[in-house]
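ok so I'm stuck.
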Amino acid sequence: MKIYNSPMAPNPRRVRIFLAEKGIQVPYEDIDIGKAVNRQPEFRKKNPLAGVPVLELDDGTCIAESVAICRYFEELHPEPPLFGVGAKDRAIVDMWNRRMELALFIPTADSFRQRHEFFKGRIRQCPEYAEVQRQNAEDSLKWLDTELANRRFIAGDKFSIADITAMVAIDFGRISKIAIQPDQKNLARWHAEVSARPSAKA
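replied:
not stuck anymore, here's the structure
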């Protein structure tokens, strides 16, 4: 078993933080996405969409998509639970993780992907859309600040995968000058707490 990783990409970081929270050690093999190794035919056999991370099991099965990889390890190692406990709790964590992906992670990533030199010639780019998504991400930070006035973590009173997704998105936003504003006290308090967890350095 091993994970194809990239130290510079946000989605592999989600998996690394998740595994660190669980205390799980898995060998990593770094893929040079700068040299587009992930877009070569050999790697596309593991993930036809060419993204990282990819978990390769001992039987050769390859699991892509960061949340799918995290779910696999949650099933094998349910403690500490990062997807919730019980039907209602799991649904709430899923709801908030999906919101963090749709409202924050994707707009933040688009603001980078749609105009940065790194992706020129790799994907179709639209700088105007990048600016719209930057504004959408900023709007989501304002909204999230109001939500965190009433609870400690994104999905409630326990740290979950939703916090991991939100933290990684916010940290990645620095490249595109998307940042927590001085008046967003609740968001800043939350971000300081989750960033202080040892797993955040994974």
